[in-house]
Amino acid sequence: MTDLPNASFSNGERPNGASVIVQGNGHKIDIGNNTLQLNKITADTNITFANVGLQQNLAIGRGADTLAFIRPNSGVGTKLTVNLHDVTLSRGSSSSSNGVVHGIYATGARVVLSGNNTFDLAGSITRGVGSVEVANDANLTMTRNANDLCIEAFDFDTRPSGSVSQFNGFKMGDRSKADVRQLDGTRTTSVSGSKVEAKNAQPFKGNFDIVQTGDDVTRHQENFGYFTRVLQGAGDYIFGQKNTIEIPRITNGNVMTIAYGKRVIFNAGTNFDVRQALNINSSPIQTVQGSIRFISPNNLHMSILDNNGNVKTGDIIYGTQGAPLYITNSALLAWNGTHSMGVNKPDFSETFNILEADGLGAKINGSNQRNVNLFGKDKGLREFQIDGSDVGEIKINYIDQNGNKVGATDMPLVNGANFVGQSFNLATKEYALDKMPVGYKWAIDEQVYEKAGTGSNGQPDGDSTNDDDNGDRFGQADYAIVPMKGDTYTYNIYVYTEGNPNVTYTYVDPFSGAEIASDKVATVGIEKARDHVPAHVGNTIDWTDKLYTETNVPTGYAYVPSNLVPSTVTQPTKTEVKDATTPIDVRIYVYDPNYKGAVELASVPDIDFGKQLISPKNRGTMYAANFTNDLVVNDDRRNAKDGWNLTVQQSQPLTSTDQKTVLKDTLFFREKDGGALTSLESGAPQLVYEHTSQSGKGVLETVKPTSNWNQPVADGAGFYLKDTGKLKEGDYATVLTWTLTAGPKI
Fold first, then answer.
1. Where is this region: Disordered (predicted)?
2. Which of 167, 257, 370, 375 lies at a CB distance of 3.0 to 4.6 Å from 286, suitable for a disulfide?
3. How far from 503 is each of 317, 499, 500, 526, 569, CA to CA, in Å?
4. Which helix (H) or strand (E) holds 613?
5. How high is the pLDDT of residue 523?
6. What's 521-564 look like in SS3?
7. What one-character DSSP code corresponds to residue 446?
């Protein structure tokens, strides 16, 4: 595109939510006495200008707060985002007296500034917006034209509900720069009979939550009366590490004022020089119901001078009790009365980890004793200087899940490259991988040693003046802070051993030998650290923990108590995991408490005497029985295992299958080898076997009395058929009744 002189914008036909993008390619757009007024912004809308010079020629008056280059209809910018990249906004060539009043007026809007942006105007860069974001590495410059309205550079309104702004206030990215200047710090304007003075202006004003900068930011302001003046509705000021703040001229007292419980925080490495050159009796720093904190400043200088730059008496700080100025990790030199740096020796010299000053004096390193002459009210401390100290040492310990130190390293620090108060993220490849002891890994959340300090007790050997290095909520180290020379900070990185995926446990019924599939858990390795011990090298697993004896026991089963554990097995107690590969399978014994067990006759034998020759010669012969199937008794009772006895009785004499012949007094039984033969003819129960249990309650015990029958002895145990001389040819049968009774024979 080419330059557009005297351009006009008609925006009434733009659809709601339609964005506007202008890529200027280095050209200029002069809209004369028009404004870029946007209608229909009730849906998210982006206005983007890139690489372009914007010009405007409006009549300038202080009452014109809403006159801006960009403004939505009725000033409502809740859904508006304005992006400016490499933009210059200035007076057009057609006028020598008019120009730009304000840059952007849009209540609740989000403004993003990237690249190099320059504003030459009479008023504010923004009015009523929700947020301003200056991108990383961006440059922002503001100068005031001859119609300087002597007001703030950025004005904010409370972020409305539904605003596209992600926060309420002003933020600068890392390595960005801002240079904001009024035309003249002593300028006075008059509007409708009201006098307005440049010395009462400040860079930020309105309702906002925060003004914040990133690291390595440079900020220059000139001819404003204040640096931070926290009025009602304003928020905190937080400056990043290694910021440089340049204020070559202050036009009013109380350049840094904090109140309403708000904070001004300068993070480590700050370079800040404040020279108050005024004839008025006013302290540069004023704290009332708020606090100002300098964390390990690199170069901090404040002094009180008169209008001509000569030494003037006064007090650097006016602070009420409970609203202190804090300075940490510094060496301070201070001058009283008419003494000054470069001319007189310091009246005070202090090296400290923390200094707390208010209107009653200063306390050093947490002492309850105040030095009333150091920063005390009406004590005349008019100048102080802090130069950055050389760096100290940082040591790193690696602590395992049991609290044992398993490794250590040092963090290399170099003066110049590093500075006191500088913070480092420890969760990096260098410390989480490269220097990690072999066999360990970074502990996460509950894996951290359970006795690690947390909160205000976290990482106790770090910087006691700063909570940023206290570790996370479990005590794991996250940031390390560089100490001053002579100090050593030590941080504990908590580590965890490798897991052994081959550690398992199995629930087993010791009475039946059956493995019981758990419906709740499969392996130890998934147990949560701190709640229970996972199967990691160096851990000792307690199998008597309720997790294994109650929580994960299969449904319907219970852990076998000591009085029921069979003598053939042992409940596990503890197992140490010594490496990450060896298989370990632990058997935990459980039983069904609803199963009482029983003693039962599992099978009886079929008795057969075979074919025998009938002959007078065989009269009186005893024929031993043959049998198939064993006589088997099973006993797995759990309440009372007091043995059992088994009897047999003959229901009727041997009778031929044709029912014509009955053989009496022919069937006999011998209970044990060498014992007496007893006739079964009477039909009375005959003791076959009496057993005293040899195993524990609940253990399945199987007894086979027939295992001793038909041994190759003349008088062996078993059934016998006697040839009484009355045998007749034929097939014979009888019925035997077996009776199993729990307990010994009575």
1. 452-475
2. 257
3. 66, 9, 6, 11, 20
4. none
5. 45
6. CCEHHHCCCCCCCCCECCCEEECCCHHHHHHCCCCCCEECCCCC
7. G
Residue ranges covered by each domain of the chain: 1-184, 393-497, 503-591, 599-742
Tell me whether residue 611 is exposed, middle or buried, using C-beta atoms within 10 angstroms of its C-beta: 0 to 12, 13 to 18, 19 or more.
exposed
Minimum mean pLDDT among 195-209, 315-329, 487-501, 528-542: which range? 528-542
- Per the CB < 8 A criterion, the answer to whether 426 and 495 are in contact is no
Question: Exposure string (b/e) for 258-289, b if CB count within 10 Å is 16 or more?
Answer: bbeebebbbbbbbbbebbbbbeeebbbbbbbe
CA distance 134 to 453: 38
| Confidence band of 525 (pLDDT split at 50, 70, 90) | very low
Check: CB of residue 256 under 8 Å from CB of residue 214.
no
Q: What is the CATH number of domain 599-742?
A: 2.60.40
Query: How far are the Cα atoms of 126, 157, 212, 221, 229 from residue 204, in angstroms, in the given order?
Result: 10, 11, 12, 12, 8
Sheet holding 686-691, edge to edge: 686-691, 644-650, 736-742
CB atoms closer than 10 angstroms to residue 294: 23
Place of tokens 């974001």: 133
Dihedral sign for Cα 564, 566, 567, 571, please: negative
Structure tokens at 296: 């390990």
